[in-house]
Design a protein that fits this description.
32 strands; 466 residues; 5-stranded antiparallel beta sheet; mainly beta
């Protein structure tokens, strides 16, 4: 049984909060992060809590935007064993800071936040990947919404390369948004992004490229939806969102329709994305907005997914290649009775697992005014987390400060592993659209402009998907 939903966090009367995130560190400790604006005139902040085995620690603010702007989105990675790196974006750029896992609840333990010098205003939150020791990659969309770009750091985030283009959208009235990047088990890279109609932002498809050689060359862009999902969303004018997810030694390819379209398709690959099984619709139908699907694995190796379906949230399990039926956490009526204390949507659920057998689900309350929570224990072995030893968390601790430090030195140029070489382009993807030449990092390339990308309507903070 799921615990009775509780209001986990609430900002001030005219404040807002949104899109909670859960991260399990490499020692099995579960951490929660979410952006907050305490009131309409307050600077944006990132709040934090940790599951201590029995309860969540008191939520505290750990990072903030002293310029007074709100935080539009956050990305978090464990870039070294026991150390997390946070990236966040405001209306004036990206910033990053690090802290050791045992100290993340202490605002003074985070390193001095530094700006990432892009020379332009970014749009949606960045997608981050660890490419090697101290080698970070960041994929983003500028505020013009006409290109997908990347920067990388070879020195652990101290300096950054100049931005280079993955893709330039040449179609009039079409923009790009919400990029993502992952690495398959064999190192194959996948980059994807959503296409949207401008200026309204109505989704117009999701496309991706992959690289087999560490980013030196890339395949043609292709549609994320495939098989039955391709046909279904083509008939719905590509009103869906999508992307990729790493599930241990498998890859998942996701496509989720917006309100009035619905369905949650997932296709699996066991060979690093060379071939894909037929997609499976794991939704129940009914009210299904354009929500992301998150997943976590229990101590038996069974994957648990959380999705928005039938006007509520449901969990689905994947055991090997066998899918369970969706199980609602609450009916839509029960969810509304608990959480609908004001107008607005209940959305953006995320799932994590602690001790190998306890499921935790956070979601966004109506009107961006609260974070809600429930949990349940499942029939799986208990695996106690291992706290990081003090010797690890006290090494090289940064000097406490509350001042954002901009990068004033010129970043050292580094050779890009992500340049697109025309010789590496594969066979043309399924499309009726023409080719457009673009110069990427000084290397002429022909990139296929695919007209099918995801249905995604953004809030001002970039979190809403309908």
């Amino acid at each position: 049984m799921w615990a009775v939903p509780t209001r986990f966090f609430e900002p001030g009367e005219d404040g807002n909060t949104h899109t909670p995130q859960l991260r399990l560190d490499s020692n099995g400790v579960l951490h929660a992060f979410w952006p907050v604006r305490a009131h309409k005139d307050a600077p944006g902040a990132i709040y934090y809590s940790r599951w201590d085995g029995e309860k969540w620690t008191l939520p505290v603010d750990i990072l903030y935007s002293p310029q007074g702007t709100g935080i539009l989105g956050i990305s978090l990675v464990e870039d070294r064993p026991g150390r997390f790196r946070a990236f966040w974006n405001t209306w004036d750029g990206f910033r990053t800071s690090t802290a050791f896992a045992n100290e993340m609840g202490n605002a003074r333990a985070w390193s001095v936040p530094t700006s990432i010098p892009l020379g332009e205003t970014p749009g949606a939150p960045p997608a981050v990947i660890i490419l090697g020791a101290d080698h970070l990659g960041l994929v983003y969309v500028p505020n013009s919404n006409k290109a997908v770009r990347h920067v990388e750091s070879m020195d652990g985030g101290i300096t950054w390369s100049d931005p280079l283009d993955f893709y330039v959208e040449s179609s009039s009235g079409i923009g790009v948004s919400s990029p993502g990047i992952i690495s398959a088990p064999d190192g194959t890279l996948f980059v994807w992004w959503h296409r949207v109609q401008l200026p309204a932002g109505r989704p117009a498809g999701v496309v991706y490229m992959r690289s087999l050689d560490g980013g030196r060359t890339w395949s043609n862009p292709e549609e994320v939806a495939l098989g039955e999902a391709f046909d279904y969303f083509e008939a719905a004018n590509w009103y869906y969102s999508g992307g990729f997810m790493r599930l241990g030694n498998k890859l998942a390819r996701l496509a989720a329709g917006g309100i009035g379209v619905g369905r949650r398709y997932i296709a699996l690959s066991t060979d690093n994305g060379q071939t894909w099984q037929q997609p499976v619709n794991i939704g129940l139908g009914g009210v299904e907005g354009m929500q992301g699907v998150s997943a976590a694995v229990d101590s038996r190796g069974i994957w648990h997914f959380i999705e928005q379906t039938r006007g509520s949230f449901a969990t689905v399990t994947l055991n090997g290649t066998a899918w369970s039926s969706p199980q609602l956490i609450l009916s839509a009526e029960e969810l509304s009775a608990y959480c609908q204390d004001r107008p607005g949507d209940i959305e953006n659920a995320t799932l994590g697992i602690s001790e190998g057998n306890r499921l935790h689900v956070f979601w966004e309350g109506p009107g961006d005014a609260s974070i809600w929570y429930t949990n349940r224990q499942i029939d799986a072995p208990y695996v106690p987390p291992q706290l990081w030893p003090p010797a690890v968390v006290t090494q090289n601790m940064p000097t406490p400060t509350s001042t954002i430090a901009a990068v004033t030195s010129t970043p050292v140029p580094v050779p890009s592993r992500w340049q697109i070489d025309p010789a590496g382009l594969g066979p043309a993807a399924k499309t009726d659209r023409p080719w457009y030449p673009v110069a990427v990092g000084g290397v002429p390339a022909l990139l296929l402009v695919i007209g099918i990308a995801a249905a995604q309507i953004h809030r001002s903070h970039g979190g809403r998907r309908r």
